User: Which sequence fits this backbone?
């Protein structure tokens, strides 16, 4: 028996399925494609077993079979999976009441697989006989080669059709034998491409089952229907076991539910899509069971197992409208597959009667359908492929001919359904001439060849021709790849015929006339070729054909104007802009007669002027063009947005950056169809120019945002604008002095240019520019000092081995500046390892002389200050004490600090087992809450670290003092003071707030501090400790130093005022906090104080205070000022302020009802919090949850609320965890679940 799916006790099948679907989602990427099919196989098998449990429901059995076979396809050697497939097949035969319940359906499927493979191999062999027709041949030679192609393709299609029918006949006979005695005469009838003789070895089997007339009146009619339903399910199982049915085709509700976007995500790329039944989607379902599931738009079921008369009702106009998925059109093209031929003949005769009795309503509906098809499969849509990343050849090429030849046959009431035979019947009747028939047959042969070649090359039913994954593959126009499938000449002749046929039908549709009025002719194909060639991106061919056409007279002015216009466009695409303008010069009057053609001309003219670098002319032309287009009242925004984009680019080149941004603002107001590749390309270019304008205006951060948008869009489209986005981003980061990031994007840009150098017209200046920026970045980063520079030797050679005197040159101050990475400092500390000891002694002696001469230029190391010979740091300290440069206490302090520093480094390296200087926060939210300084202290203990930092602080203060008074350098002694005040500063630097407060309260009254500056500094440290601990007694401490800190140091004065404002804010005294920040601003202005670290803090505090007072607009103004401050964003503290400000901006926007804008801010904060591992991630979750709740998107709100609750629970025992209102988060979760209608079980 089948194994039961794993299921928790009390859990429903639906809940289990949803859980498994989520597990499967974890195995897929963002597009729903499996990352590792081997890992997803067990999950698919489990879901399949769930659908087995829902049997004997027919659809559930079919879905189960598809899922179980999908698991086998991913793990072919898994015996358990294979056994599950065999057992469900056996179970099916038992529930059907079949005559032969012991039949092995898997074995039958294997036999069918062999037959299909033989058909494919034969088709591939015959397809290899087709050769490309050269473009440059005579018309007579072309006709001969065209006839050969028609003969081969038609013969190939007939062979595939007969083989395919015989396979389906074989399966039908097997199903009949399994089910036993048939209750009535019946027929399996094929439809679609099988009936038209255009089927491929990988096509679906679209079919119906016809029953003999009168059977519906029998008393056991329901049993008879049930017999054929199970007949269809067995047939379906045999086809499913071929493992060519993709999972989405059976519409599993948890994976591919078209009515619920949240559950429509799975993309089965792994299963080879081939011979299968039509899908379960409501617009498909062309198989006997039909449409069993309904939707709001399709509320009727449709079964395709019916007696002849009832099946004919689907051809009725009203019934066709009710079904709404062109079933009546599909039923007009059928073929016999298996069963009773008399039943099939009755159906064909009845259908002819229905078609002969067409009324006006039928004709109107037919014309309406024709108009819809002409819009959907317009051959001129090939132009949209210019910026596309893929092409659907079935929609774009195959249907542009095949569909309309069938339409032509229907309108002339041709009885045959083979498309090739339809053309010959039309010629036989005299409806079309021999030349037209040859053109249509050749076009049909080409589109069939294209589809067959693409399917056979991919070994699956896949209509997409796609660009590759490398930038080099993104460069060629998508149309070029389509043309290469069959060659230029074949594709041009095919699409020329398609263009004429579609326009012929378009004329008839618009006039609502009958086709007998006028014959289809190809007489104008010579003049249409330039138009079609442009559509295929063959610009040189366009000009050649246009020059030939100029010698002839055009049939009408419109065609002449259109061909000339396309010739001008071809010149412009080839970079011959002056020639393009010359071609268009005399056309303006003709073009103005057609508003759409004229609009295209105005757009293209602006493009040519732009490329001729006539910026003023572009601006004048686009202004006139906008007015002209507005006067026509054209609602097509493609023309307007192109003009806005070109005008914006021209104004950018003219240095009018603000005006350019205004043009691009108008561009983005146009309601464009963003699914069209051309529009997406225009959007990418416009974003690029917006970024360039912002960069020129000094808004590098905003420019970076645009550059990233362009980069993302370019990668989606597989467009070469990815190269331009790299350039913009490198320039932005360079302007922000982030040279490493700039260098990264420069190198990507250069790599892109080199990759495509032989494919596109790469601007030589572009190479020069990017290489210059690379050099500048490396220079700023000091990369050129990393390797020893070559020194010219006496014999004019170069070498990297230096003698002693040459090496001493690196100690020179100017050379040190030039090298830029302190090589001079490194060379002052050396030791002998191996070689000639005398050479080393000579170098060391020369170095001591050099240091003695330049001692006043070095201020960082004690070895430089006193010309100490020893390079060992411990020995340096002892030598300084020996020479009475420092006293014993100072020497002890320095030695202890040095020992602690070495201990820290050794412990970190040894613990990590490698040279790695970084101490990092962990990956859990609990780790993110802690201060990183606490981890540093744990390495050696609090006391050791405090003493070490105290010594380091005093040593650096001493050196800083010497720097300001170089002339007295050698007369000053370093004295390490062990006083309480200096130690308290060290404790504060380490973030030990409780220790600072305790030491202050215990000892500050017992020790006298003679240095007022030091006392103010320590008071400030204590106040900060009180603040960080949430103890707002800090206000009292300010009183002790605020009065005299003004005279001592303006930094303390301003910092004290800011800290006082922050204290007031935390005490809830928001008005006083605003007043305090205003005083601080005035104080800073009076002192002409512009420190970039204080202003952001002020704006941040006053913004929060105004938010708390309900002044949301004013708060937003303060935060706007905050983000204008040029503070250093690499400092973690500034990162924290930035995240906090983003969150408060989001809260203000939310309170003002701007929910979409509000949600953007916490997302930014969330991303930044993850980067720096900040606890503000929790506040981001809370704000996002609140925003989604207000937007009534309760599922998303619940998701973020649960994430927030998880974070709070993780840190509940930490001090910071007590500040968060867990009851509020739980209330949101409860409210969301209530809104979503979750029951108590689900909530639990």
Assistant:
């Amino acid at each position: 028996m089948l194994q039961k799916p794993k299921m928790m006790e009390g859990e429903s099948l639906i809940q289990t399925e949803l859980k498994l679907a989520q597990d499967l989602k974890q195995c897929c990427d963002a597009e729903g494609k499996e990352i590792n099919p081997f890992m997803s196989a067990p999950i698919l098998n489990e879901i399949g077993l769930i659908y087995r449990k829902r049997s004997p429901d027919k659809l559930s059995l079919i879905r189960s079979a598809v899922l179980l076979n999908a698991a086998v396809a991913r793990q072919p050697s898994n015996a358990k999976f294979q056994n599950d497939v065999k057992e469900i097949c056996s179970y099916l035969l038992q529930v059907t009441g079949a005559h032969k319940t012991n039949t092995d359906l898997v074995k039958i499927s294997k036999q069918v697989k062999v037959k299909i493979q033989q058909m494919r191999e034969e088709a591939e062999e015959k397809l290899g006989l087709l050769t490309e027709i050269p473009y440059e041949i005579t018309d007579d030679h072309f006709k001969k080669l065209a006839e050969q192609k028609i003969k081969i393709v038609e013969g190939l299609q007939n062979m595939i059709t007969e083989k395919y029918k015989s396979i389906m006949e074989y399966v039908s006979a097997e199903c009949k034998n399994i089910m036993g005695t048939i209750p009535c005469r019946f027929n399996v009838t094929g439809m679609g491409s099988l009936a038209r003789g255009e089927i491929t070895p990988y096509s679906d089997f679209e079919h119906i089952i016809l029953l003999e007339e009168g059977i519906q009146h029998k008393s056991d009619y329901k049993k008879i229907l049930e017999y054929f339903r199970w007949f269809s399910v067995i047939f379906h199982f045999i086809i499913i076991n071929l493992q060519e049915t993709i999972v989405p085709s059976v519409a599993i509700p948890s994976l591919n539910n078209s009515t619920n976007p949240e559950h429509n995500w799975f993309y089965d790329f792994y299963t080879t899509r081939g011979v299968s039944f039509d899908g379960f989607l409501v617009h498909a379902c062309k198989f006997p069971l039909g449409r069993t599931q309904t939707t709001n738009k399709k509320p009727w079921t449709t079964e395709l197992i019916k007696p002849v008369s009832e099946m004919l009702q689907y051809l009725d106009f009203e019934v066709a409208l009710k079904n709404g998925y062109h079933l009546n059109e599909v039923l007009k093209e059928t073929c016999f597959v298996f069963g009773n031929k008399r039943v099939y003949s009755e159906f064909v005769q009845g259908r002819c009667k229905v078609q002969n009795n067409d009324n006006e309503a039928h004709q109107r509906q037919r014309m309406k359908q024709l108009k819809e098809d002409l819009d959907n499969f317009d051959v001129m849509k090939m132009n949209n492929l210019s910026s596309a990343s893929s092409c659907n050849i079935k929609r774009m090429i195959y249907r542009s001919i095949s569909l309309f030849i069938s339409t032509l046959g229907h309108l002339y009431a041709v009885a045959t359904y083979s498309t090739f035979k339809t053309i010959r019947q039309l010629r036989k009747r005299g409806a079309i001439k021999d030349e037209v028939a040859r053109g249509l047959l050749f076009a049909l042969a080409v589109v069939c060849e294209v589809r067959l070649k693409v399917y056979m090359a991919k070994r699956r039913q896949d209509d997409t021709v796609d660009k590759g994954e490398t930038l080099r593959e993104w460069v060629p126009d998508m149309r070029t790849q389509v043309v290469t499938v069959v060659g230029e000449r074949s594709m041009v002749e095919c699409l020329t015929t398609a263009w004429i046929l579609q326009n012929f039908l378009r004329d008839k549709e618009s006039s609502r006339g009958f086709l007998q009025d006028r014959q289809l002719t190809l007489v104008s194909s010579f003049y249409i070729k330039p138009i079609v060639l442009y559509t295929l991106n063959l610009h040189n061919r366009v000009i050649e054909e246009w020059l030939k056409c100029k010698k002839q007279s055009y049939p009408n002015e419109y065609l002449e104007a259109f061909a000339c216009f396309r010739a001008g466009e071809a010149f412009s695409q080839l970079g011959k802009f002056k020639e393009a303008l010359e071609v268009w010069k005399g056309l303006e009057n003709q073009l103005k007669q057609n508003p759409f053609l004229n609009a295209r001309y105005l757009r293209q003219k602006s493009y040519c002027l732009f490329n001729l670098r006539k910026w003023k002319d572009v601006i004048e032309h686009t202004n006139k063009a906008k007015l002209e287009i507005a006067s026509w009242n054209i609602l097509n925004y493609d023309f307007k947005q192109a003009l806005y984009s070109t005008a914006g680019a021209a104004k950018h080149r003219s240095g009018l950056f603000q005006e350019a941004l205004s043009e691009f603002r108008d561009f983005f107001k146009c309601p464009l169809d963003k699914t069209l590749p051309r529009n997406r390309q225009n959007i990418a270019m416009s974003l690029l120019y917006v970024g360039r304008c912002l960069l020129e205006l000094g808004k590098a951060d905003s420019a970076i945002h645009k550059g990233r948008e362009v980069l993302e869009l370019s990668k989606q489209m597989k467009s070469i604008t990815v190269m331009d986005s790299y350039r913009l981003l490198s320039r932005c980061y360079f302007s922000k002095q982030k040279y490493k990031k700039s260098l990264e994007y420069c190198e990507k840009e250069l790599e892109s240019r080199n990759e495509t150098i032989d494919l596109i017209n790469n601007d030589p200046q572009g190479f020069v520019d990017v290489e210059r920026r690379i050099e500048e970045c490396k220079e700023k980063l000091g990369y050129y000092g990393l390797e020893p520079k070559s020194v010219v030797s006496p014999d004019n050679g170069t070498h990297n081995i230096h003698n002693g005197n040459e090496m001493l040159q690196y100690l020179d101050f100017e050379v040190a500046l030039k090298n830029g990475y302190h090589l001079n400092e490194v060379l002052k500390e050396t030791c002998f390892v191996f070689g000639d000891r005398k050479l080393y002694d000579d170098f060391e002696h020369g170095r001591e002389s050099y240091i003695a001469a330049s001692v006043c230029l070095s201020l960082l190391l004690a070895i430089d200050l006193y010309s100490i010979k020893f390079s060992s740091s411990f020995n340096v300290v002892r030598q300084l004490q020996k020479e009475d440069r420092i006293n014993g206490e100072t020497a002890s302090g320095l030695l202890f600090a040095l020992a602690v520093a070495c201990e820290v480094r050794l412990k970190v390296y040894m613990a990590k087992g490698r040279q790695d200087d970084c101490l990092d926060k962990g990956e859990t939210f609990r780790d993110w809450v802690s201060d990183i300084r606490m981890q540093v202290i744990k390495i050696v203990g609090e006391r050791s670290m405090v003493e070490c930092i105290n010594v380091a602080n005093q040593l650096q203060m001493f050196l800083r003092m010497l720097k300001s008074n170089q002339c007295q350098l050698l007369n000053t002694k370093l004295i390490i003071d062990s006083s309480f005040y200096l130690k308290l500063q060290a404790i504060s630097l380490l973030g030990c707030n409780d220790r600072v407060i305790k030491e202050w309260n215990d000892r500050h009254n017992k020790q006298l501090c003679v240095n007022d500056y030091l006392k103010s500094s320590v008071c400030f440290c204590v106040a900060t400790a009180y603040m960080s601990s949430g103890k707002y007694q800090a206000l009292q401490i300010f009183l002790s130093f605020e009065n005299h800190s003004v005279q001592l140091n303006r930094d303390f004065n301003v910092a004290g005022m800011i800290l006082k404002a922050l204290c007031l804010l935390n005490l809830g005294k928001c008005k006083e906090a605003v007043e305090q920040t205003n005083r601080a601003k005035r104080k800073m202005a009076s002192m002409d104080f512009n420190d970039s670290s204080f202003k952001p803090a002020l704006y941040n505090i006053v913004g929060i205070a105004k938010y708390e007072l309900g002044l949301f607009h004013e708060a937003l103004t303060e935060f706007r000022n905050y983000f204008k401050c040029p503070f250093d964003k690499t400092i973690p503290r500034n990162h924290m302020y930035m995240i906090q400000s983003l969150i408060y901006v989001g809260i203000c926007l939310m309170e003002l009802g701007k929910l979409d804008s509000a949600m953007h801010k916490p997302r930014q904060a969330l991303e930044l919090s993850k980067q720096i591992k900040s606890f503000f991630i929790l506040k981001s979750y809370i704000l996002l949850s609140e925003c989604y709740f207000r937007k009534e998107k309760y599922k998303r709100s619940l998701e973020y609320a649960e994430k927030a609750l998880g974070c709070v629970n993780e840190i509940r025992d930490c001090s910071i965890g007590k500040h968060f209102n867990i009851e509020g988060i739980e209330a949101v979760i409860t409210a969301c679940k209530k809104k979503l209608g979750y029951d108590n079980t689900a909530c639990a």
Remarks:
- The mean pLDDT is 78.
- The two ends are 34 Å apart (CA to CA).
- Residues 139-179 form the longest helix (41 residues).
- The chain is about 65% helix and 0% strand.
